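Title: Prediction job returns without error message
Component: structure pipeline
Severity: low
Priority: P3
Assignee: unassigned

Description:
Job completed but the reporter wants confirmation the result is attached to the right record. Sequence as submitted:
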Amino acid sequence: MTPRPWRGILVAGFVVVAVVGIGGAATGLWSELAGDPAMRIQGLTEEVPWHEALPVPSYAPAAEPEPAPEPTFDLATHSTTDPASPWVIVNKQHPIAADHVPGDLVDVGGARLRAAVQPDLAAMVAAADQAGARLVVRSGFRSYAEQAAARADVEGRRGFAHAERYSARPGFSEHETGLAVDIDSGTQPECNLQTCFAQTAEGRWLAEHAWEHGFVVRYTEQNTAVTGYAPEGWHLRWVGRDLTAWLHAQGVGSLEEAFGVPGGPDYPTG
């Protein structure tokens, strides 16, 4: 049978149309995806550019851990009013009971002191000796009657006004706690109980190092208005190394200031 040429023409035309149609659709799709920056993704609340609609991973840095707070020193560890407390404050506004006698007094170089004071005092004397300062223990605990006698002696020799500045009335002396000690100079004994003690090797060493061993130089030129006493470089008060380290670090010059306890030069009236 003779082939019909029109059929071949129809088939070829159909193929051309199909190819052109497919190519056109592909070209249009490519144009929408790649060539048109205004292409929109449908189905969202608002139309947004396709490149903005894709999720972007977040790489925010991890938060730095907060440093642990520094521990605070607890000034309420011991009482400032209990005469048995290592932090008891006795001054011209805060007396101690007339019949108070600590039950743990021990002999330290001929003076009576509370037992807790002895190790630190021995360590301090040894450390000072290595530095060329000879600390000599002069006096420690005094009973009410003994303090009355000491006060009367100072007043008799130097007068009432002088005694008020340097010697406590009985019932108002730190010596009655068993926690205070007077130190003599082993290199310049002529300055014992004198203002020049501060210029001796012992006085200078104590001013710089007593705190390292749990003692404070209780009465200084800087704290006279607060404590009520003139400077006494020889009068030490033991409160323990924890408290003296805190006082030194904070630059606090007296127990009254540290604990917010009133002091001053005047005794209670009435």
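Comment from assignee: result matches the submitted record. The first strand starts at residue 105 and ends at 108.
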